[in-house]
Amino acid sequence: MSKPNLFAGAGAFLIALGLWQGGEAAYIEAKAWLAQDLLDSAWSDTLGGARQVKPWLWADTWPGALLTVPDLGVERIVLAGASGRTLAFGPAHLDGTAPAGATGHAVLTGHRDTHFSFLRDLTPGMALRVQRPDGDWRDYRVAATEVLDARNARLAAAVDGAHLTLVTCYPFDTIVPGGPLRYAVYARAADQ
Q: Which residues, in sequence order, are CB contacts of 33 under 8 Å at separation 6+?
């Protein structure tokens, strides 16, 4: 094979690889945001009294709460069960913790590059709001943020009052997925 043909073939391969990777990234982003539109409808039905409303026929989750950050204009439907499939569509409630907006310690988790990318902008004192399936709201204030190593960190399960912890992978801008570090935002009910 001649050098020009070798370079042309290598160039075509690199372009195809780049398009494939870019297309996959765009697909993940589009899926994440389209899901939130479908979840809005399911959340409306939930507020109307329906329970465990699946946002699409094959869904294995349903909306469990609405999380808002008024200062940032953020509004996210929170899904039941923090499995890998669920997190592809939105932030999720970690099983075994208190329901979001209830008394106890609720833990919500989401991806750093889609639904929970705003966590980097939260600072102590900022307001968070959670709407429960019954339509009632609970207001929280950010108390602290912390970077944790998931290999040895444990979040408190039982606490007095109402606490909310938001968790995502860390660092925010890395191109390598996974890793042991997590970014946690701790909030407590504003009336405590």
A: 114
